[in-house]
From TrEMBL:
<keyword id="KW-0812">Transmembrane</keyword>
<keyword id="KW-1133">Transmembrane helix</keyword>
<feature type="domain" description="DUF1206">
    <location>
        <begin position="115"/>
        <end position="181"/>
    </location>
</feature>
<feature type="transmembrane region" description="Helical">
    <location>
        <begin position="70"/>
        <end position="88"/>
    </location>
</feature>
<keyword id="KW-0472">Membrane</keyword>
<dbReference type="Pfam" id="PF06724">
    <property type="entry name" value="DUF1206"/>
</dbReference>
<feature type="transmembrane region" description="Helical">
    <location>
        <begin position="115"/>
        <end position="135"/>
    </location>
</feature>
<feature type="transmembrane region" description="Helical">
    <location>
        <begin position="248"/>
        <end position="268"/>
    </location>
</feature>
<feature type="domain" description="DUF1206">
    <location>
        <begin position="203"/>
        <end position="270"/>
    </location>
</feature>
<feature type="transmembrane region" description="Helical">
    <location>
        <begin position="156"/>
        <end position="177"/>
    </location>
</feature>
<protein>
    <submittedName>
        <fullName>Membrane protein</fullName>
    </submittedName>
</protein>
<feature type="transmembrane region" description="Helical">
    <location>
        <begin position="28"/>
        <end position="49"/>
    </location>
</feature>
<dbReference type="InterPro" id="IPR009597">
    <property type="entry name" value="DUF1206"/>
</dbReference>
<feature type="domain" description="DUF1206">
    <location>
        <begin position="26"/>
        <end position="90"/>
    </location>
</feature>
């Protein structure tokens, strides 16, 4: 037996451990809280209050609360646990906890890539939470604009930005489609009723739409050589707020992010692992 096969077998055995599965599920309500905070920030922007409408802004808001440092460590722990489960899915395929021989399955590469992408996102947010918990501070939009400005100085860097924009746009479109088609119900291990379906549809469509707008804004910013507009989720939200129906669009986006946040609490109990 090869070393790779032995390692995959060990990971498969780990996913059969009920305690580890419970630890991974902790990441879902943590993600839900972050989405509710982002919804709160977006609503504030709609009402004219300044804020950073992304995960960094949500973590900064959490850090400013009483007991925020402890809460940030909880966020980091939950997201790291969920990221490790996604890494297991990268190796074994989706839902390895549902069978005892997941390492022998043939899993489509696209599913492994999706799992790896989620693991990377959760890890990045967890690292930011740890930085805040240790007394640091970050401005996600400023860092994104600075990185974009450096990349725009060369043709290769501009190509990288366009590729990133296309990937984020594709993820957003897929997320919105997943909500509109109700395919997200396949991620649940039991029927959960119309209320959960409503939250899932609204949450996926709203977040997917904003992500798609964020990806397109990166592409447009690269074409116009305007790094200030290539600031990811926060930039997309504020660009939407500058349209004719800005406040109404932002209120709808806030409601959608809140719906997805509540849906994450459902995932904590009913997600297929």
């Amino acid at each position: 037996m090869s070393a790779a096969s032995t390692f995959k077998g060990a990971v498969d055995q780990a996913t059969d451990n009920r305690a580890l599965e419970i630890l991974a599920r902790v990441g879902y309500p943590v993600n839900g809280v972050l989405h509710l905070l982002i919804a709160y920030i977006i609503l504030g922007i709609a009402l004219g209050v300044r804020g950073e409408a992304d995960q960094t802004g949500a973590l900064a808001t959490l850090a400013a609360q009483r007991g925020g440092r402890i809460a940030l460590w909880v966020v980091a722990f939950g997201l790291i646990a969920l990221a490790l489960w996604r890494l297991a899915e990268t190796l074994l395929g989706l839902h390895p906890g549902e069978c005892t021989d997941a390492h022998h399955r043939d899993t489509p590469m696209i599913n492994r890539l999706k799992a790896f992408g989620l693991a990377a996102v959760y890890t990045a947010i967890a690292i930011t939470a740890i930085q805040f918990a240790m007394g640091g501070s970050r401005k996600g939009s400023q860092e994104a604009a600075g990185l974009s400005a450096r990349l725009m100085q060369s043709d290769g860097g501009r190509a990288v930005l366009v590729i990133i924009g296309l990937i984020v746009t594709a993820i957003g479109v897929y997320f919105a489609y997943k909500g509109a088609s109700r395919n997200f119900l396949n991620d649940l291990n039991a029927p959960c009723g119309p209320a959960v379906t409503f939250l899932g549809v609204c949450g996926h469509v709203a977040e997917g739409s904003v992500l798609a707008a964020a990806g397109l804004s990166v592409i447009v910013a690269t074409y116009r050589s305007d790094p200030a507009r290539a600031t990811g989720l926060d930039g997309a939200v504020k660009a939407l707020g500058q349209t004719a129906l800005g406040p109404a669009v932002l209120a709808a986006a806030a409601a959608g992010f809140a719906a997805y946040g509540l849906y994450c609490f459902v995932l904590a109990r009913y997600a297929r692992m």
